Amino acid sequence: MSRIGRMPVVIPNGVKVEVDGSNVHVKGPKGEIERNFSPEIEISYQDGVIEVKRKSDERTQRALHGMTRALINNMVVGVHTGFEKVLEINGVGYRAEVNGNNLVLYVGYSHPVVIEPKAGISFEVEPKTRQIKVLGYNKEIVGQVAADIRKVRPPEPYQGKGIKYLTEQIRRKAGKAGKV
Question: Cα separations (Å) of 50 from 2, 76, 139?
Answer without folding.
Answer: 16, 10, 19
